From TrEMBL:
<dbReference type="InterPro" id="IPR011006">
    <property type="entry name" value="CheY-like_superfamily"/>
</dbReference>
<feature type="domain" description="HTH luxR-type">
    <location>
        <begin position="148"/>
        <end position="213"/>
    </location>
</feature>
<dbReference type="InterPro" id="IPR016032">
    <property type="entry name" value="Sig_transdc_resp-reg_C-effctor"/>
</dbReference>
<dbReference type="GO" id="GO:0006355">
    <property type="term" value="P:regulation of DNA-templated transcription"/>
</dbReference>
<feature type="modified residue" description="4-aspartylphosphate">
    <location>
        <position position="54"/>
    </location>
</feature>
<feature type="domain" description="Response regulatory">
    <location>
        <begin position="3"/>
        <end position="119"/>
    </location>
</feature>
<dbReference type="GO" id="GO:0000160">
    <property type="term" value="P:phosphorelay signal transduction system"/>
</dbReference>
<keyword id="KW-0597">Phosphoprotein</keyword>
<dbReference type="InterPro" id="IPR000792">
    <property type="entry name" value="Tscrpt_reg_LuxR_C"/>
</dbReference>
<dbReference type="Pfam" id="PF00196">
    <property type="entry name" value="GerE"/>
</dbReference>
<dbReference type="InterPro" id="IPR058245">
    <property type="entry name" value="NreC/VraR/RcsB-like_REC"/>
</dbReference>
<dbReference type="Pfam" id="PF00072">
    <property type="entry name" value="Response_reg"/>
</dbReference>
<keyword id="KW-0805">Transcription regulation</keyword>
<dbReference type="GO" id="GO:0003677">
    <property type="term" value="F:DNA binding"/>
</dbReference>
<keyword id="KW-0804">Transcription</keyword>
<dbReference type="InterPro" id="IPR039420">
    <property type="entry name" value="WalR-like"/>
</dbReference>
<keyword id="KW-0238">DNA-binding</keyword>
Length: 216
């Protein structure tokens, strides 16, 4: 059972998210919070697997909450929700450790897919967010590409292959099928890559792969 926390300052939005989560047999809503500070306190006291955070909240917003959770509960996976699609928010959310990013007008099934994906150690970006991220990478420029290529220079050939497939948005199962490895072995490679590259999650790894020209 995936234990989920919702943090949003709008009661109506929390009710809607709660209703969506309630349709899944493998997901349990364990707590609700009205702001990031309350969410952090709840996580300190209760076991939470996935935190669904609104970016814009009073007292402590979702971005600050994600940063705090990385310190107090690094095992908690974060899905960020927002009504805003600005590139700045996407970049900040990913750098703050979010593994999922959805716009609030996404289809209900997208939320369920995101929760399951991040709980499984994968990443989930809504199609609109993905297109924005790809657009940012496409205009990143030659200096950024050189920096990314330098970062991956110390990887083994197999690690580069795994990283390239992450850059294409593949899941662990897809990578395993492509490279004829078990899903468990792929997870080991992903964990090793993140440690070697000093990254927080596989979304950042995917962006690095694109910056380095490993994925298209």
């Amino acid at each position: 059972m995936i234990r989920v926390l919702i943090a949003d300052d709008e009661p109506l939005m929390r009710a809607g998210i709660k209703a969506i989560l309630g349709t899944a047999d493998d997901i349990e809503l364990v707590a609700e919070a009205g702001d990031g500070r309350e969410a952090v306190q709840i996580v300190r006291e209760r076991r939470v697997d996935v935190a669904v955070l609104d970016i814009r909240m009073p007292r402590m917003d979702g971005l600050a909450c994600a940063r705090e959770l990385r310190t107090v509960a690094p095992a908690v996976r974060v899905v960020m929700l927002t009504t805003f699609g600005e590139d700045e928010n996407i970049v900040r959310a990913l750098s703050d450790g979010a593994a999922g990013f959805l716009l609030k007008d996404s289809a209900p099934e997208e939320l369920l897919r995101a929760v399951r994906a991040v709980h499984n150690g994968e990443a989930y970006l809504s199609p609109m967010v993905t297109s924005r991220v790809v657009g940012m990478v496409a205009t990143s420029g030659q200096p950024k590409r050189q920096e990314a290529q330098k970062a991956v220079a110390g990887l083994t050939e197999r690690e580069v292959e795994v990283l390239a497939l992450l850059g294409q948005g593949m899941s662990n199962a897809d990578v395993g099928a492509k490279l004829h490895m078990s899903e468990a072995t792929v997870k080991t490679y992903v964990s090793r890559l993140l440690a070697k590259l000093g990254l927080t999650n596989r979304v950042q790894a995917a962006l690095l792969a694109r910056d380095a020209g490993l994925a298209s």
